[in-house]
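Objective 1.3, modelling of assemblies. Example input:
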Amino acid sequence: MNVLVCIKQVPSRSVPIDGSSGVLDRSQAGGRINPWDLYALEAALRIAEKTGGQVTALTMGPESAEKSLKTALSMGAQSGVLLSHRAFAGADVYATAFTLAQGIRSLGAFDVVVCGQQTTDGDTAQLPFSLAVQLGIPAVGWVKGLAVEGDTLCVQQELSGGTQQVKITAPCLLAVGEGIGKPRIPSLREQLRARSREIRRIGLSDLENKDPDCYGLAASPTRVVSVSEIHQTAHAPAQQLPPDDAAEKIFAIWQQVREEGAYGG
Amino acid sequence: MILESVSPKYLSCLRDESGLVGRAEEICFPETEEAVAEAIRSGAGKKITLQGGKTGLVGGCVPDGGRIINLSRMTKLGEVCETPEGATLYVQCGVTLDEIQKKAQGKGLIFPPNPTESGATAGGMFATAGAGPNSLFYGCSSQYVAHLQWVTPAGVCWDIPRGAYKVENGKLPLPDGRKIPALMGWKDGTDLIEILSGTEGYLGAAVSMELRLRKQAEDLWGVVFFFETQPQAMDFGKALLPLKEQLQPVHLTTAEFYDGETLKLLGNHMRNPLLAGLTEFPQGVTSAIYVELEGPGEEESAQALMMLLDLFESLGGKEEHSWAENGIAAVQRFRDMRHAVPSILNELPEICRSSRGIRWETDFAGREECFPETLAMYHAALQETGLRGAVYGHLLENRLRLALLPETPQEEAAARMLAEKLTAKVLAEGGNPAAEYGVGKVKRELLKKLLSEEEKESLRALRHAFDPEERMNP
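Predicted structure (tokens):
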């Protein structure tokens, strides 16, 4: 199976939020690969090793994001691709997923797309699912274990209060958490080799959709109005529902919530 | 100033990481320099013990009756001040290393000394002349103190800018106008700040200071080299000494050694949060050397790393027997690995401690190029006594530690005798038997036994020049 891993360069220390735009001010941040993406890389490498495929690491970001791609190469990815253009800047989850999907399509077909479950900067944990929708493939999130059986991935998915076994065939997307196992540490030789390897660059002109207004801040429906700390005020325990009547029970709960107006009716 | 009796809620203030437990009648938590001075003055006639983060390993802050002055609420932290001469940061003595680094890193700077315990306080680091694995290049914490506020055992605040009070013609001028004769081999030009550093609260309290910061290195690398045999590791270490110069402009800032027992210890505690970022160690390795390199750019670093790799492979090192990371965030996992060693040793339930709660570990510094001899001395001693021990520490500075791991009272007695014997040997050879953790209360009796009369007299004279009643940190 050929695997594509989406990675992101995140600030290596805490950064302020720009008051006017509501986006993170990364100017003084330094950069490192998103720690969750190391687990994604580990999962991707295991799938490729098991099936004899190749791993491609893709990131969207400025030139400096090349460093994170080199980290991916040092861990064992066969190629790295930097998706970069000024039109991509300031993208929210939706616009980032759109851009990544355009980039992935321009690279050809992949059997599996792997993402880290979340990032340490935006921290929404939504991108993998938005990307799966854009690519038109099924997704499994919170993956904590996986095995390959022929062309099927047997995935352990972390749920509140339990673990779910899922079988999924390619093409598909996995959003991986730390339960997958510790990411490998590159050797010095691998690190030095990675430093001298070429990174492929693709920009707006390489994508199917070349309209700059479809990317970045201009195409982002999210607007940060204010930033505040939230506190959990209630806790509803997870319920294990038997498969036979789960749908019926979920519908009943949804109806009850709707009638009580908990979410504005 | 509020004085409280040492009720059960303050039991944690009677101990530190050494395991030693003390006693005290009263405790106070001053928040200003003047309040510290008043706490010392008002305790006339009482024994006084100064306390910071309580992360020490030799019982330096463990009280022996009297009053505890706990400085953990001295937590004022200034803003980074950048001038053409360099950047400084004002801190009170209770500010932790972690807080200092966060403040510095926000401006792309670092406080170079890196004692591995991030909860250590500025005052504690100064009192113990704390350094850390990167002392190979950066030296110890006192070198980064540009200005010191000091409270004397008489409860007087001294303002000490670096360079203002230095030994001259065999005399040291003090801020109160006295001049005391040079003691302990001080040379002309030795700064009062350096003299006060490492005195473990015997001569007063470092209450606040201005710390010098440095720009973060452009390119930071951490590499762990694993070896199948210990002679291979020693050959690598010996070759590093001359290679250090050839790596320029890249600086070798750290060279830490782990023997097989230490690796086994770490391997058995992989669930320790400090080891969360590591995978299993390679199979069949018996020792490791961790190095850090700081370079001005990627190209220079790559050349230096290639030299290290060539050396490693020429000694039979295998490609898969190294780990390498780039950048401060990624390298942190290797720093945590080093920090994990004393942390795990301190928590081993099976280790038999002395009746005072002490764990036996050497803290020697010998002649730099003699680290293979130090390692051989440790291993010979372990073989002779049949004791189990783990060797780790700063390799190129020859500050290797031997942590003894006795599991029965008989073995504990043998461990104590071995520690004494090794200390006497190191002293006889001109080495320092309390190189980094300090003397504290754990090694005081041992040193009393082993120091010459002349050396003891010199220490007494220094103490009496500051604290004639011998009240401070009894």
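Chain A has six helices and eleven strands.
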